[in-house]
Design a protein that fits this description.
Helices cover 59% and strands 14% of the residues. It is an alpha+beta fold. A three-stranded antiparallel beta sheet has the order 1-3-2. The radius of gyration is 14 Å and the shape is globular.
Amino acid sequence: MSDFQTQAVRVFKALADPTRYRIITLLIERGEMGCADFDRAFPHSKSAMSHHYRLLESVDLIRTRKEGQHVRVCVNAEILERFLPNFGDVHAHRPDTC
């Protein structure tokens, strides 16, 4: 398999989990989010959510940054578009705009 195919499989496997899939769609819908935002959106423990963040980060689907004591998370749009073009248009709910 080529490097592209290997990375594509890793991305698809990461998104096969419902929690990770929802993390990505939430980030597309809301933009950058903090871990506290995810705590309100998911009934999982902090350690479980940390596992999901690490896995998404390991395949470059998300980026994290420290802001003081807080961690902010955003989608790596370049990687998402490379392997799943138009993912946000198809999978994420975006409110209608006027």
